[in-house]
Amino acid sequence: MSKKPLTIHENNILSLDLLFRTDNVKQQFQTGKILLVTGLFGLIMASLLFQYSASTQLAGHHFHNHINRMITAFVAALLCSQISKDFLMRASLWMYLVSLMLLVLVEIKGTTIKGATRWLTLGPLRIEPSEFVKLTNPIFISYFLCLFSLPLKLRNFVFICAVLLLPCLLIAKQPDLGTCIIVLMIGTVQIFASGISYKMIFGTCSMLLASLPFLWNLLHSYQKNRIISLIFPGNDSLGTGYHLYQSKIAIGSGGLWGKGLAASTQVHYHFLPEFHTDFIFALISEELGLVGVGVILICLLLLVSGILILACQTECQFSSLLLVGIAFFFFVCSFVNIAMVCGLLPVVGVPLPFISYGGSNLLVCGVGLGLVWNLSRK
Amino acid sequence: MLKINNSHREIRARIYILITLCTLAIICLFIGYAHLTLNQNKRYHELAINNFQKNKQTRPIRGTIFDRNHRPLADNKIVYHAYLRVTDDISQQTIARIEDLITIDEQSLSILSSGEPIKSKILLKKDLSQNELAALGIHQHDIPGLIIEEELIRTYPYGHYLSHVVGTSQTLEKNVSNHSDSKDFYFSVLKGMTGIEKTFDTHLAGIGGWEHITKTATGEIQSKVDIISPSQGKNIKITIDAELQKAIYELAKDYNGSIIVTDVESGEILAALSLPSFDPNQLMFTHKKSGNQFFNRITHGLYPPASTVKPLIALEALNQKIITEDTEIDDPGFYETPNKAHRYNDWQKHGHGIVNIQKAIAVSCDTFFYHIAQKMGPYNLFHSMQNFGLGQATGVELPNEKRGLIPTPNWKSMKKQRWFLGDSIITGIGQGATSVTPLQLAQATLLLAKRGNAKQIHLTKALSDDTAWTEFQARDYPPIEYKTKHWDLIARALEDVIKFGTGHRFHNNPYRAAGKTGTAQVVNISNQNDKNLKSQDHSLFIGYAPSNSPKVSIVVILEHNPYAAKLASDIISLYFENFIDDVQKTVDNS
Fold first, then answer.
1. Which residues from chain B sit within 8 angstroms of residue A290, using beta carbons?
2. Do the interacting molecules here have an ipTM over 0.85?
3. What is the pLDDT of residues B184-230, one digit of tens each?
4. How far is CA A366 from its chain centroid?
5. Residue B522 in contact with residue B539, Cβ under 8 Å?
6. CB distance from B29 to chain A under 8 Å?
7. pTM attached to this predicted model
8. CA distance A269 to chain B (A)
9. Which fold has domain B298-467+480-578?
10. Is residue A45 assigned to a domain?
11. Helix or strand or coil: residue B238?
12. Does domain B53-76+154-238 fall into CATH 3.90.1310.10?
């Protein structure tokens, strides 16, 4: 297949030359990449646009910082794209073990902020190990899956479930329900993608349903409150439901076309909390309305399905499963965030990938993209 | 590296399922957002606007109360209060920082430190001083949630001198919305609670306006626009001379009782005191109002009129020809009922000897009036006092005036009791169940001074319209028709009271006055521990000066103190020396 000129080349942010270096790619492969790049381009544009909009309401060099962090993320992506796949596979076990150790360390002598012990303080640095788990876990799961003959047998399935649940339980204990659910979801999807039999799927599902009341008792009271305030948001507009209530006002008042860029009243009068981080989607919805929401959702779908199509086309199982893991990392994070902002899910502190302000969020996204870039290169 | 193709095909199939699931999930999200943005747009749009924009009722400026010389007696002033708006957890650090600057109210502090959940905002301190205001003003921006609100409050420049006349007002919170929990819809109104403030509340209040405000979630107001400006309340001018009132207060502040000074010609009340008094300025922020000093004796103080009713009874007795100018009796110091069953003592143990009506009034001979009372009977006694306005509300512009009581057989039968001759006899000297307010005595004195053709006593001088003052027109009191010679006789008798009678304490006064004293026996001694003070009788004095052409009339009632006449004399001197320019000193030449 001859080199097909891509219009995207001109206005991309990442150097697409590197991404599309190989000449002998298949047509489907190209489709995946085009979808991916289009989606990514849309999301990055949205990130710049709305962080700029948010910066009009914030003091300091907010937008400037955001650009710097994007560049950092890009460098991370470049670095990750150069790691050899064999190294990644060999290192995955160690990454898993180290992250597990860090989680145990958090449990023993972590820093507690607002009642949650999620951080490790190392001199001036404060790290949140559960953030790493979001990526190290999928890598290890995909490696681990490749070790067995697929589809999984029951014994192996139980084994891999244990491997998946161990970090999840540690994270849930911090407590950080949001991250726990994301890690769990990504692992579950990877196991599903590995071709596990439907018999086992139904068996697991019914077991989970049966243990639901027991799980409810394990939740912390504030987590229960969040779930309750999700169901009855009007009850308590200044208490636990306040963020959600204001967020829904922002979304609902946006209408079809929105109030215009940088014209959010909810943000301008400080009613919308965390409008540049976790609740940026409410800002998007208020300023550009349902149309803006639709465009972002389409971009997200393009990005995710692009990565999934790439996963279909790779010959290597490890790559496939890891790409599925990364795709669902983006998807689950985005879904949880977007659903939480409009009140479809309880409020958990999950940033919106690519768009939310925050160094670690962008960095993880960059690493994820770097790995996609790495694995999709033949 | 390559695994079995079969399993890889399965992976692909699963991935296509996942793509479908993703698409469905995205569609679900989109539907969720479409529901919010399209179906519920109207509702949320309103909520968004209500978040930062509000139409708030604004308080009108309350009208000013002036005295007769245009001195303000009740005015408005701006005070500042500090609040803490609660959006998230309040850190103890913030509280400590605020505490460095001001002393937080104990009640608020206990709420803050108890960690109870607080909604909306909490009051830190009311009525900040200038220093506190400046300190908070500097730190307002780095203490999150700190709000300084201004409030227009009522200030009373003459404070405790005039508190019972001008009255008090209070800030009442009023909820104007249906949502009982939304604090933003509350607005406060100043409402007159007592005195002129209450009587003329609607006149003074004005009409509230509306303003459009935009504010942030932390309560910071970003803009304010008046939609309807509040219209200011109307002013009122009262007949009181604040400086005279103040001077009298300084003379009388150690006593308990009531003093009323009235302009004879116009019926205007120049000074009205109820002692002890209180400072209404200190009452703005507390709602506690109990204690002797809050009792308004001017309208609510019920006293036996005692011997001050003797001229009124004498006039009626003369009119009904029960006695004549020349009727004389021999006073042995007591009166015996016709059946000799009861004996009523005169205040003078050995009696006054031969007394006629003029002397009887001058020396306040009880025996003479026991005789008259017995002959007149209860209904004539009742009319003699009722003519002069005793036992009925005077209609002065003060709220909830007491009516007092003149006992009659009817009244006693309502209590299922019989009327005895003794009831008539003690009513004849203004004792027994007879009770009147200082205002009623003031009206009666005015009628005595003007020989039955006086104005009604009143407090209103003028009411302001939007532009000009409208003078208040006093009504005439229903005239009392007695013969001139009887009026002359009583006037001479009242002069004699001062010259050589019971009003001798008044005698040194250079201004020729006429008056009548009274001593009300305190029947019930409520406080046994304080017996020395409480067992003393009340003393009363009513009078007017100068006696030949009365200008000013005065009523003094002192509780548990015999010096009413002396105090009245001092007040009369004070008045003529300092508060009247054009009067020629009518020095007693006789």
1. 33-34, 37-38
2. yes
3. 444 567 888 889 999 999 888 888 788 888 888 777 778 888 888 88
4. 11
5. no
6. yes
7. 0.66
8. 4
9. Beta-lactamase (3.40.710)
10. yes
11. strand
12. yes
